[in-house]
Amino acid sequence: MRIGLLTEGGYPYVSGDARLWCDRLVRGLGQHDFDLYALSRTERQENEGWIELPPQVGRVRTAPLWTAADDGVVYGRRARRRFAECYGELVAALCASGPGGAGGPGGAQRQPGDSSGDSEEFCASEADRFSSALYGLAELARDEGGLVGALRSERAVRALERACRAPGALRTAREARVPDLLAVAAHLEQALRPLSLDWYGDDGLGSADLCHAASGGVAALPGLVARHFFDVPLLVTEYGVRLRTHYLASGAGPTAEAAPAVRALLAAFHGRLATEVYRQAACVTPGNAHARRWQERCGADRDKLRTVYPGMEAAHFAEVGEAPDYTDPDTLVWVGRVEPAKDLMSLLHAFAEVRKEEPKTRLRVVGSATGAEGEAYLGHCKALAAQLFPDEADGPHTVGDNPVSFEEIGGPELPTAADAYASGTVIVLSSVVEGFPVSLVEAMFCGRATVSTDVGAVVEVIGGTGLVVPPRNPRALADASVALLRDSERRARLGAAARARALELFTVEQNITAFHGIYLEIVSHCPVNRVVLDRSGEPLPFAVPAEAHVPGRWTGPVTRGAARGVPGWAAGPPVRATAPTAGTVATEGAR
Questions:
Q1: 3-class SS at 533?
Q2: For the whole model, what pTM was predicted?
Q3: How far is 342 from 403, CA to CA, in rounded Å?
Q4: Which residues, 6 or more positions from 278, have their beta carbon under 8 angstroms from its beta carbon?
Q5: Strand order across the beta sheet in which 33-40 lies
Q6: What is the pLDDT of residues 168-188, one digit of tens each?
Q7: Least confident of 44-53, 104-113, 474-483
Q8: Alpha-carbon span 106 to 109, nearest angstrom
Q9: Mean pLDDT throughout 213-228?
Q10: What helix, strand, coil percent values describe the chain, rounded to 5?
């Protein structure tokens, strides 16, 4: 089958989100053909180029989200009226408040524990309103050639202002000032750019048997359009729920400095979009139960959800896992990206308590900081470590040494991640916010005993093969670490059980097998019935062989330029259809 893989800020670019698992998925499913439709986030990402693509990738089409040239489309009076109606309805759905005037995080989304009939009816009504407006804009972009100029126009800002000032609008929306309106309009223009792309047609997503979005949000928007125009089924995979990511980002960085009206309206847009993606998807595959709960709260149908754990390369850690030789039985190791969400401050305070019980213990913090915020946080952690643990010396003639070291993978002592995990006897994770804990799974592959905080999917991943403590509790973290440091037999039991669990649930092989089965299941339940037209525009009977829906390469290579679904031996100039006689049926469901 032909898969349209949709990404945003990741594959096939060298850097970005979901790059590794997308590449492993495509390479692991060599029996299918993949077309990549990628949205880039920055100019730097585009300049870095692509990774080497496998032969089953047929075509790659890219578009930037960070910039868009004016499409030069000039709307006539009827098109301007259509845009005003559709865009007005879309922003009105964002500004609408729920029963009693409450909006909620996603505009008027269904909240956990809210069983009110009025609330559910209102949510469904506003969701339909948003979707109708969204697809109306998509149809306008197809008919007129683009939306970029219209979305940047004064007409769009005035429509947003009317929606914010309308009776019944969110209180925070009514407080929006002109700079706030301009900021929201600019964000909506950027998020809706995929509607203006030329990806939708018989030579694009319209020829796919299935669209697979590597994340929710804007990445899934082309899949929604393909489903609307061509009824192509949509599969959405979220290893990090995009709406949750937006909420977290709104509390830090540039968005945190925005006015309340801007934050509320952007949250409403992403909430509405998430709800529509979940409604239209044939299947949604969260990466863990934590992500699954978020999706359910955002309106995903429980029957559509299939948990598929991320696949990770176990071979990189096989040598350490199969021969767990603890190089230093008195060393704790933390591995990850240095940032405030990892709560290294609590880890350092916990280590101070550990040192009181086990004075010979050392702590290795292995990881690098990204961005100005990460660098500043790393500096604070080093200052705290120097304050808590002055350099110590074994005697009057030896050089003092701090029991806490800050290192990075790739150096002479720790050339690989496996070496980092092998350097200690207990692996610790101190995060206060976590999605799928990659470093924890890597430690499990290495057969290491772990102490982790109860956040995100940690409990689901560890499954009883490690110790779990509450977050922001240095005393509990210290007690669990001391318990494992003092009991080598327990460490060995937990490490062996953790490795067995990781090899069963979190390998690349299980991930590829799961998606292969989901692909076949979706296509078997949602076949794309496509009618091929002849030169005069009339339906062409028997244009696609009935057996073309069978997955596999039974047809051999498809000739470039041939109609989608036509085998190579049938490629070539089409035979002109004879005029059907009266009463003859001239159409057939191709597939």
A1: strand
A2: 0.82
A3: 20
A4: 216, 236, 284, 295, 298, 299, 300, 301, 304
A5: 57-64, 33-40, 2-8, 210-213, 234-238, 283-286
A6: 899 999 999 999 999 999 999
A7: 104-113
A8: 5
A9: 94
A10: 50, 15, 40
Enumerate residues 6+ apart whose C-beta is below 8 A from 314.
321, 445, 502, 503, 506, 507, 508
Between 510 and 576, residue with greater pLDDT: 510
The rounded distance, in Å, linking the Cα atoms of 393 and 526 is 70
Could you report the per-residue pLDDT of 429-450, keeping only the tens digit for each?
Answer: 999 998 889 999 999 999 999 9
Query: Which residue in this structure is represented by tokens 């339909």?
Result: 128
Please name the helix (run of DSSP H) or strand (run of DSSP E) that holds residue 407, with its range, or none.
strand 404-407
Residue 285's Cα: distance from chain center in Å?
Answer: 11
Beta strands in 157-276 (DSSP E): 210-213, 234-238
Give the integer Cα–Cα distance in Å for 408 and 414: 7
Q: Note whether 445 and 317 are within 8 A (CB).
A: yes
Residue 332 pLDDT grade (very low, low, confident, very high; cuts 50, 70, 90): very high
For 272-288, the pLDDT digits (tens) are 999 999 999 999 999 99
What amino acid occupies position 411?
G
Cα distance between residue 471 and residue 244, in whole Å? 19
